[in-house]
Amino acid sequence: MALAISVIAMAGLTTRAVIAQASCSKRPVIVNLAVSYDIASSIQTIARTYNAQNERVGGRCVQIQVTQGQPSAVAAQIDGQTSLQGIPPIDAWIPDSSLWVDVARNYGPGAQLVQQTGINIAKSPIMLVTSQQVARKTGVFSAPATWNLLLPPAYGGPPASLNLSVDIPDPNDSAVGLSTLIEINRLLGTSPAARAAFTKFVLTTERTAEFNSAAALQSFVGSTGAPFYRRAIAEASEQAVIAYDRANPGQPLAARYPTAPSSALATPELDYPYVVTSPQSVQAQAALAFGRYLLGTYAQSVLRYDGFRSSTGVPDQLPGNSGLSGQPLQLASKPSPSETATNLSAWKKLGLGSRVLTIIDTSAAMGAPAGLANLNLEQVLTQTASRGLPLFPDTTQMGLWEAPDSSDASANYKSLVPLGPLPADWGVITRREQIEQIDLTLKPNNNPLHLNDAILAGYKLMTKSFAANYSNAVLVLTAGADAPGDMKLQSLISQLKSLYNPNKRIVVIIIQFGHQGSFQQLKEIANATTGAAYQITNPADVGKIFIEAIGQRLCNPGCSVP
What does the alpha-carbon distance between residue 94 and residue 73 come to, in Å, rounded to a whole number? Predict the structure, then answer.
């Protein structure tokens, strides 16, 4: 009888299971969940368990469909910056950081779709990392780690003798990189010197892919050994560090949580928010139900086992060889949405390729003594140009004008090399080599310099041929000593202001050699386009001027940083 009852009971359970499965096959509520790569495997494991339970919303069972996606790309889909053609709508989203929620909500469609639930399913602090070999050779972690370790030597970073390079996951795509950028900006402040330091930091770091797995960190460590022997420091999440240490128990990473007297400069963390993005009521309810499930005991145990901290910040048992459990962890204050947007914008501006029309003054004034050795101003200009040209990367487009035209007294300028990519062929040599050779051969002439006319002509050319995704500029190297008959200063300024378009920004950057012209007037010309003017007496100063000029890309009204 007991056996018969058991058989009947089992048959009943089986029938109910079949019915449940069958009913789930009829119009289930499919929730398309986009998940950051690093946590996707954990969420898929949890989702399989959840789907097997046939949970219901509105009488229909719920099925979670997990798709891996780079958070920056998903944010662009949600906020309407990229097309969704051929891609199922995203019903819910787990990026690795709330920073991407701020980015998505910065645009109208994202602000309407993103429904914040207040749920954070996991945490993972961000760490400074290097190989054990580099740590021993440089002593970089011999003192408590701070964000200063990432700064250039001239701005408070490690001494140049350490030859320490900095790898940063591209903040355009990486929350770890973007968090690092925010901390560096907080550290430097908002002064003009800070703008130069921030610019130098961005231009001298090595942009990398995300160090979000054991394999990615293995590649980084490999670059610090033979045959490369790079002395590099990078940033990665605690979870990625744990994954690497588990895979390499005999040689764990040298990893530290950044510390500071102020919470603003401490350790940021990835916080894995759970947001609902579906406008459909049923999908939204089903998505929210799974979000609550992710806070349950089973889901949280899976996440902790995979190296993430729980939603409340509790870690699993840390690898004994890593040294992580003995380190103090001081969490940084969270950035505001405006802080996120401003830093991301600054990174993009500084990362733009340059498109530069260079106007070189060869008037008689350039033959005057420079007061440096036995050089005249033209020779100082030549040396400055020789030092400055290598600072422009191969992503640069450049053209070269001579003003006045040495062969035609009636011409305000002569085009020597048209605008184009520096590494592109120009005859039998590259455009970069051609410009370099011409710079070395230019000499002063006696033709009248109509500098204002030449600047306006150059600005009109750049306006007509404006290129998006570039920083467009007219660079003027001059003594500033104009001849009679040139356009009046106020007329030039008026026309430049009329041509200037903040949405298609073209700036005039002027470097004056000597003191024969009016530097004040040159500054007025540059300011009309939100550009800048500099005086130079030593060619060695061009590196500093280059950094300051690039930093002008960050200038809003009042030139706030960034």
Answer: 13
Q: What are the residues whose beta carbons fall under 8 Å from the beta carbon of 532, sequence distance 6 or more?
A: 507, 509, 510, 523, 526, 548, 549, 552
Q: pTM value? A: 0.85
d(CA 116, CA 358): 50
Q: Which two tokens stand for residue 336?
A: 């505001």
Reading the block at residue 77, the tokens are 């889909």
Structure tokens, 506: 């073209």
Spatial distance between the Cα atoms of 504 and 472, rounded to a whole number of angstroms: 9
Contact 192, 559 (CB under 8 A): yes
Domain assignment present for 376: yes
The string of pLDDT tens digits covering residues 374-424 is 999 999 999 999 999 999 999 999 999 999 999 999 999 999 999 999 999
Decide: helix, strand or coil at residue 211.
coil
The reply to whether 317 falls in a domain is no
Return the exposure string of 371-396: e unless at least 16 CB atoms fall within 10 Å of the residue's CB, then b: eeeeebbbbbbbbbbeebbebbeeeb
- Cβ–Cβ under 8 Å, residues 212 and 38: yes
Q: Which residues pair with 256 in a beta bridge?
A: 128
SS3 track for 516-547: CCCHHHHHHHHHCCCCEEEEECCHHHHHHHHH
Instruction: Give the mean pLDDT of 268-292.
Output: 95
Mean pLDDT of the chain: 90
Q: Which of 291, 314, 346 is the last residue of a domain?
A: 346
Please tell me whether residues 105 and 140 are part of one structural domain: no
Query: What is the domain range of residue 364?
Result: 352-554
Paired tokens of 371: 């007061």
Give the Cβ contact number of residue 425 at 10 Å.
Answer: 12
